[in-house]
Amino acid sequence: MKAVLDTNIIVSGLNFPGREHDILDLARIGRFELYVSPFILDEVAGVLLRKFDWDTQHVARAVRLLRAWATVVEPKRTVSVVRRDDADNRVLECALEAQADYLVTGDRRDLLPIRLFEGARIVSSAEFFATATRA
Fold first, then answer.
1. What is the spatial distance between Cα 83 and Cα 53, in angstroms, rounded to a whole number?
2. How far apart are CA 67 and CA 53, in angstroms?
3. Cα–Cα distance between 77 and 44 in angstroms, integer?
């Protein structure tokens, strides 16, 4: 099972206990194939620095760990599905390039309403966790 985690899921998982943290643990142990793009990694780093006041060493370590757990893809196609927040299009491009089964997001306004994009189901962390832990 291939999945792309939106920046908000990764950042939550790195900062707080709970489902998003558990999803990162599932990626770490190989329960699913995690895919990220350079854009997602850069966005995660920026949010950790600006909004969570992480120091650069901790951010670099987190990005190294994500790279170790994930396959980094460089999207070849550009999409313009979300008009309000172009960054969401970069996440969709990652899902497209990875041929992901799932795009996991907390974005109720723009991404979750799409529900399906080029074969990738767009789901909440709760939906994905239930799927990933199903026996």
1. 29
2. 21
3. 21
